[in-house]
Specification:
Strand content: 5-15%
Distance between the termini: 31 Å
Number of domains: 3
Shape: globular
Length: about 650
């Protein structure tokens, strides 16, 4: 079981935390020990929506000054978090739609259509006529249709029809089909204003509609437009962890979530003139690496190495080897700016939506993106001579990972270009070779041991023949410990191992960034419509798990999976733990309504037990053969010293290897 006393299981992180201690530097790990959360607010028992309060529910009262009940306050707080998460993902999509529109109109010459077949598939889904039109004209119409979905006032957003028919009918019957992305978000904030909607169930039913505007709207458009502009991911092999930084090159970290700026930084760093400029400053070259979901975007498409997940952003600066950390939006700690002053690292913000006091601000716009990116890269190069070698400390750990399993590639790998299908996967589940599926995704949270929940849960799931897909910082966690390679199949259950060996894939598939959870929705839909596993997503033997959630975006993701029919389990703690009624509503109540439920379970072992019990219950409901792990072969024993051995697990080392 995970040891909650440990800050992290990552040996690279442990070395840098010791380094920080020596230098007297605080990180998020240290601030977690110093700054204890408000116990009232953490359980959702606080309302600060007007200035009669904040009202605290501490046992003396069960209503606020206005008379609002504990349950109403809890529902409002949760709905607002889901709305904020939806707004974040959807604004990401809006930015990309404007980039696509500018590229199609020739106003953004540095951006090209990289995947024409994907463009045409998306246009077909959107019912956009293509005969006699140029690629640019089709792209313009796709961008405009995406933007229409933000401002749509009635009807429903375009991608609702991508869900299984039975699920569409349910949403329409319940009034959950989102009318327009912006409309649902705005209405959520209006409903939760003081003195407005005061029925907890009514508030949280709308929260489900808001979340669907993310999963089947903003996030799905983000994924599709990124594929169109930068290419649909296919598997790439690349190294992960802080050991990817280089002693003799200009190290640039891209961090955040939007791909278009990072793509331009990548192109600028590969320009021969810019490389020559770096060499003129004494560097051997330019080394680009990523953190968070910007990292995932360039990882799955261009094979850019991964420096780490959310809790690595301060640690990367602590190496003293990073010339510039280039950030756009979301999950960026303000703490990196004062920390950077202790070293030579420059923090450069590139989004017009996000500035940090004390950081350089060089916004990238689509009309002159590459020239601005070159300026940013040259700024980093100019900083290379300022690196203090006496302060440089790069932990010598990396691991190999294979990432880039788009839903298109998952269909392709099961049948090739002309017979792509989900039939083999469905058959393997029906026969019991694969017990079921799980999405293990999400953030880092310093209130639990970094990465440990991910590794423990996934280890147990694949051992029990559950195929796992991962995204976001969860994908980073898997990559750092060697869990994203075909060799990991040796530690899967016999049935899952047989399938992985036949196809040549890992039992854990990295599908991209946090907006790419929409790819998982597409996979689930294709499985449901393939036949043999029911007619709807809620029929499938599948679960969603977020062991280390921390952001509002995570709640939006969890809610749209629930609304799509998926049993979803979050770790850490519950933001509505102070109300048994709301806890019951989002679990049993939502399950009765939409077939999915949201539960908060801090114990990773119990998460696994609940996930397997749910998968088995769904198999039984489908009248599939009972899962028997001994039917095909015996599981291979764990090899001492490998990624999942008990000895390595206790040491917290897993299979992180020295970079050499």
């Amino acid at each position: 079981m995970p040891d909650k006393k440990k800050k992290t299981i990552d040996p690279a992180a442990l070395e840098l935390l010791e380094r920080a201690k020596e230098l007297g530097i605080q990180t998020a790990f240290d601030r977690t020990e110093i700054t204890k959360p408000c116990p009232i607010g953490r359980e959702g028992n606080c309302c600060r929506l007007c200035f009669m309060g904040p009202c605290r529910f501490v046992g003396k009262t069960n209503e606020g000054i206005c008379g609002a009940s504990r349950e109403t306050i809890q529902a409002r707080n949760l709905a607002r978090m889901i709305a904020a998460g939806t707004a974040s993902h959807s604004d990401h999509a809006r930015s990309l739609a404007f980039v696509l529109l500018a590229a199609a109109r020739g106003e953004a010459p540095d951006f090209k259509i990289k995947d024409e077949p994907k463009l045409r598939r998306v246009a077909a889904i959107l019912d956009i006529p293509q005969d006699g039109k140029t690629v640019e004209q089709i792209a313009e119409q796709v961008a405009l249709r995406a933007l229409e979905d933000f401002g749509r006032q009635d009807g429903e957003i375009s991608y609702v029809k991508r869900a299984p028919k039975k699920r569409q009918e349910l949403w329409r019957r319940l009034g959950l089909a989102p009318r327009g992305i912006d409309r649902e978000v705005v209405e959520a904030f209006h409903r939760t204003h003081m003195g407005n909607d005061q029925d907890p169930e009514h508030i949280l039913t709308h929260a489900l509609a808001v979340s669907l505007a993310d999963g089947w709207g903003g996030s799905m458009f983000s994924t599709d437009i990124s594929d169109i502009l930068f290419g649909t991911p296919t598997p790439v092999s690349v190294r992960a962890n802080l050991g990817v930084l280089k002693e003799d090159e200009v190290n640039i970290i891209v961090h955040g979530h939007e791909p278009h700026g990072a793509q331009m930084i990548l192109e600028a760093s590969q320009d021969p003139e810019v490389i020559a400029y770096a060499k003129s400053k004494g560097a051997k070259g330019i080394n680009l690496a990523g953190i968070c979901c910007t990292a995932n975007e360039v990882l799955v498409r261009q094979g850019i190495p991964l420096a780490g997940n959310f809790l690595h952003q301060e640690l990367a600066i602590l190496t003293g080897a990073v010339e510039a950390m280039i950030v756009d939006v979301q999950c960026i700690m303000e703490a990196i700016v004062p920390l950077s002053r202790r070293f030579h690292t420059k923090i450069i913000t590139t989004s017009p939506k996000a500035k940090i006091e004390g950081a350089m601000h060089i916004p990238i716009n689509e009309h002159e993106a590459l020239s601005i990116a070159k300026l940013i890269v040259k700024t980093a190069i100019d900083n290379y001579p300022n690196r203090d070698r006496s302060k440089t400390f790069i932990p010598d750990y990396t691991n190999v990972q294979v990432a880039g399993f788009s839903h298109e590639y998952i269909a392709y790998m099961q049948g090739g270009s002309y017979r792509e299908s989900f039939r083999p996967l469905n058959d393997a589940i029906m026969q019991g070779r694969i017990r079921g599926g799980a999405g293990v995704v999400g953030c880092n949270n310093p209130w639990v041991t970094q990465d440990e929940g991910f590794v423990y849960i996934i280890r147990e799931l694949i051992k029990n023949d559950v195929l796992v897909v991962t995204t976001g910082c969860g994908g980073h966690a898997c990559g750092k410990y060697g869990m994203l390679t075909p060799e990991t199949m040796a530690h899967a259950g016999p049935g899952l191992r047989e399938v992985c060996q036949a196809i040549g894939i890992p039992p854990v598939l990295h599908m991209g960034s946090c907006v790419d959870n929409s790819r998982i929705l597409t996979v689930l839909t294709q499985m449901a419509t393939e036949g043999g596993l029911g007619e709807d997503i809620s029929d499938l033997p599948a679960v969603g798990i977020a062991p280390e959630w921390m952001s509002e975006k995570a709640l939006a993701i969890g809610a749209y999976f629930v609304a799509s029919g998926v049993y979803t389990i979050f770790g850490v703690d519950s933001p509505v733990g102070g109300s048994q009624a709301i806890t019951k509503l989002i679990s049993q109540g939502w399950e009765e309504m939409v077939g999915g439920k949201l539960e908060f379970e801090p114990d990773p072992q119990k998460m696994v037990e609940k996930a397997l019990a749910h998968i088995d219950a769904k198999r039984k409901a489908l009248k599939l053969e009972e899962y028997r792990p001994d039917r095909y072969a015996q599981s291979q024993s764990y090899v001492p010293g490998d990624a999942f051995s008990a000895e390595a697990y206790k040491k917290g080392l897993y299979s992180a290897k020295k970079a050499s």
